[in-house]
Write a structure and sequence with these properties.
The complex is a heterodimer of chains A (796) and B (53). By secondary structure, chain A is of the alpha+beta class. Chain A has 28 helices and 28 strands. The N terminus of chain A is likely disordered. The chains are: A alpha+beta (796), B mainly alpha (53).
């Protein structure tokens, strides 16, 4: 029996990981690796040890090797990355994924203590961004990157950084519009009070003064804050669409004209405060709708995980080349943990490529010399050399991304409730307004005009415009709290309407962490050590998993070793003959009893048992299987059908399982389902699903780390919350019901208002009370109802 | 009662100053990151010669 060592291992002073060795030590402080120790040395050398006072173990582990920033000397790349530069000042915004605690914040804002050429550094904690101003004459960006790397905060510089800078979207000035509207609303309300409470005869001059002031205040509200509604209504009208902006714009215009007319002709007080309040609340609703979650970017594509430059070998020397300069025939060097940016042929080295970004499969794949390796794989292990056969823009991966499904406009999506309703709403509203005008006209034309305008004012669908954004934003924050991040509010409604769930297998319904490994049979400690010693020589993924299963044992000297690819290992160790591999390899003829991956073991001719490799399904997969009564469930997997039988537990029948699907086939299948009238929600994780994600009515990217790369989608679901999917689906339906209910409430208010309006006797006071009252009712109803619904679904 | 004209003028002017202050804060990016300052304030200034630029 092997001895068990039970003493508690110390944890690393820097990162908190377990220290497996005592060889990295300074002043009784233990470190887990050279990297962590050198970070400590740098920090203590600069007198920045307060870093360790704010948090215990604030660092992240540095057990990684060399990293090159040579490419940051290239002026073309530099120009793309820097926010601003001149002779004496450069400004750059870097994305630093390691930022996680107040110590990080403190250290990164003290960068000037390392080098006085850094003028200023500021952290945006939620965005994990660092803004640095430095002197480019004495300090280069490369040095900055190296400094950050040395202290454990390696900036993540990707191709997207360069591209993004060029098409940065212009920021709307919505907040300013709200500020102006709020300012005017407050003032107008105060100036309107005397009118509502009555003025004595001798104060009549004030009435006119207040009236004119009110008009003055409504001017910026209509022409600055409310301008967007007129523009939007006009554009939609030109396209023949009646959306909610039309009645809103009409309401604003009528309110303004009637107020101006009443004040100027001294016939009344007008509706200045209703107008300002309306615009103010509407803009707030729009703001709530726009408020998306900044800490997750949905616009990531393959570019965001490609490097900016790659090392190539030319005339016996290595030099960095920007990705755009990479051409066919270049010989590139890819090191441990680097990504292969273009399709290439392997020329030198042991390639063990992790294709998890592309396929979701996390077990590294072995490639032999001369084989084509597609872009997107990440090399693990030693450095390899490859010859580029296609430029980046034409690689398989990029082609996939440029499929028309990605560039197509998303106008085939389902219409939201709001869009559907507002069309009929507008027609009915105008019909009532014209009807009351015509009804009064024969008796009293003044009253007719009063009634006409009053209807447009009172029925202005303010509450309707507010109910959706407020319900949705409440729902969004609930989803957010459960690690389900939606791109925008319309996604909730789309989710409520899907009736078909399509799932990818690897990485989506199985965990990304790989397979479960089971040993059938008993092994003694010596036997374990023998098997470990044999398997540790192999780079086959299954051998590596067996080694991981045993943990760190001592490796014995191997006398003889032979590995037959796809079959197994024969080895002689300590005089024992080991045969490890498939049943066919060991016994000649063998049929597995089940469709699973197994590795059999034989030592000195006696059969000892086998390892079984099973995919580990995500927690809660049973609950999702239970959805099959309400939804049609489909599986679209790029893998072989090894686990067909096991998957039948979750899916209705064999016709719903599709294996060995290429990315294009996945996309086509979704399209075929849609043509049959299914409304499809697709769950996937790898780039091979991205076509299907885009094509589906609702694409959800499932990921174990939301800050990692994930394909472009409508929503990102953290793997931890996968079991909540049924609850999410039910909650989205609740949310839509809440919107319907709040719409009814708003209609009730409108009907009450209308009964005043059609008589032509709507007083400004009634309008001024009714409008905020309905707004407050709607907002509080939606917030409370969403909260209760979430509670019922166990989401809070 | 004519004093009311003056008082209203004053109050509107004051409100305009506040509006201007808000615009200024908005333009200088003070509303862009609302979370980090709340952490920054908890960190000690242990270094007297750390200078702000």
């Amino acid at each position: 029996m092997p001895e068990t060592i039970t003493h508690v291992k110390p944890s690393c002073y820097h990162c908190g990981d377990e220290c497996l060795t005592t060889s990295y030590q300074i002043e009784e402080k233990q470190f887990c690796c050279q990297g962590c120790r050198s970070v400590y040395e740098i920090l203590s050398g600069a007198g920045l040890c307060s870093y360790y006072h704010y948090n215990d173990h604030p660092g992240t582990t540095r057990a990684r090797t060399d990293k090159r920033f040579d490419y940051l000397n290239d002026p073309v790349i530099l120009a793309g990355l820097l926010d601003y530069t001149d002779e004496r000042l450069s400004v750059i915004t870097l994305y630093i994924p390691q930022i996680h605690c107040s110590s990080c914040l403190w250290l990164l804002e003290q960068l000037n203590r390392f080098n006085p050429a850094i003028y200023y550094s500021r952290v945006d904690f939620l965005k994990k961004q660092l803004i640095v101003r430095f002197d480019p004459k004495t300090f280069s960006l490369r040095q900055l990157a190296e400094l950050l790397y040395d202290v454990g905060y390696e900036p993540l510089i990707s191709l997207q950084d360069i591209i993004q800078k060029q098409n940065k979207a212009e920021k709307g000035n919505l907040v300013q519009k709200i500020a102006v509207a709020g300012f005017c609303f407050g003032n107008v309300m105060l100036l309107s009070f005397p009118e509502y409470f009555g003025l004595s005869g001798y104060e009549q001059t004030f009435r006119h003064f207040f009236g004119y002031l009110n008009i003055l205040f409504t001017l910026p509200v209509v022409f600055f804050s409310g301008r967007g509604y007129f523009i939007s209504a006009w554009h939609n009208l030109k396209k023949g669409i009646l959306n909610i902006d039309f009645p809103l714009a009409l309401g604003i215009a009528v309110l303004f004209l009637r107020t101006a007319a009443e004040v100027i002709t001294h016939t009344g007080a007008g509706f200045a405060d209703t107008l300002c309040g309306l615009v103010f609340f509407l803009l707030i609703g729009r703001f709530v709708q726009q408020k998306t979650y900044h800490h997750i970017s949905f616009e990531r594509d393959y570019r965001s995980f490609f490097p900016v430059a790659v090392q190539i070998v030319a005339e016996g020397k290595e030099k960095p080349v920007p990705l755009s300069g990479l051409v066919t025939g270049h010989r590139m060097v890819i090191r441990h943990n680097e990504i292969i940016p273009a399709d290439a042929i392997l020329l030198k080295g042991q390639a063990l490529i992790d294709f998890s970004f592309v396929t979701g499969e996390s077990v590294p794949v072995n490639k032999t010399l001369g084989e084509i390796i597609y872009a997107g794989g990440r090399q693990t292990g030693e450095a390899i050399e490859l010859e580029v056969i296609k430029p980046v823009s034409q690689s398989y991966l990029t082609q996939l991304w440029n499929n028309e499904a990605f560039t197509r406009k998303q106008d085939n999506r389902m219409k939201t409730f709001n869009e559907t309703v507002s069309k009929y709403f507008t027609i009915v509203l105008i019909a009532i307004a014209v009807g009351s005008l015509l009804a009064w006209l024969p008796f009293n034309y003044r009253r007719g005009i009063d009634a006409f305008t009053a209807v447009l004012i009172v029925a202005c669908p303010c509450a309707l415009a507010l109910s959706t954004p407020f319900t949705m934003s409440a729902a969004l924050s609930i989803f957010d709290r459960n690690f389900f991040y939606l791109k925008n509010t319309a996604v909730v409604e789309q989710m409520a309407r899907v009736n078909t769930l399509v799932m990818d297998k690897t990485g989506t319904i199985t965990t990304g962490r790989g397979k479960r490994i089971d040993l059938s049979g008993e092994l003694t400690g010596d036997q374990q050590q023998l098997i470990y010693s044999a398997c540790v020589n192999s780079i086959h993924p299954l051998s590596r998993m067996i080694c991981q299963y045993f943990g760190a044992l001592e490796k014995l000297p191997v006398a003889y070793y032979q590995e037959l690819p796809g079959k197994g290992i024969t080895a002689t160790i300590n005089g024992h003959l080991l045969r490890i591999g498939s049943g066919k390899f060991l016994f000649g003829y063998f049929t597995e009893t089940k469709l699973v991956t197994r590795v059999h073991i034989m030592i000195d001719g006696s059969y000892l048992g086998y390892f079984t490799f099973l995919q580990e399904y995500r927690e809660g997969m049973e609950r999702i299987g239970a959805l099959k009564s309400a939804y049609s469930l489909y599986l679209l997997s790029g893998d072989q059908d090894h686990e067909r039988d096991e998957l039948l537990r979750f899916f209705p029948d064999r016709g719903h399982l599709h294996f060995s699907q290429s990315p294009q086939q996945k996309l086509d299948r979704i399209e075929a389902l849609q043509l049959q009238g299914h409304r499809v929600m697709m769950l996937g994780d790898g780039l091979n699903d991205s076509g299907a994600l885009k094509q589906s009515d609702l694409g959800v990217a499932v990921t174990d780390d939301v800050n990692n790369f994930s394909p472009g989608s409508d929503a990102i679901l953290d793997g931890r919350s996968f079991h909540n999917l049924p609850a999410f689906l039910r909650f989205s339906k609740d949310t839509v019901k809440i919107i319907h209910a709040s719409f009814l409430i708003s209609l009730t208010y409108n009907l009450v208002g209308l009964s005043y309006a059609v008589t032509g006797r709507l007083s400004p006071l009634v309008a001024a009370v009714l409008m905020p009252l309905s707004t407050v009712t709607i907002i509080s109803f939606t917030t409370l109802a969403t909260h209760f619904a979430a509670k019922r679904r166990n989401l809070i | 009662m004519t004093i009311i004209y003056f008082l209203i003028g004053c109050s509107v002017l004051l409100a305009l100053i506040f509006l201007g202050a808000f615009f200024w804060a908005q333009r200088t990016g003070q509303h862009e990151d609302l979370y980090t300052p709340s952490m920054r304030i908890l960190l000690d200034d242990d270094d007297p010669d750390a200078e702000e630029k």
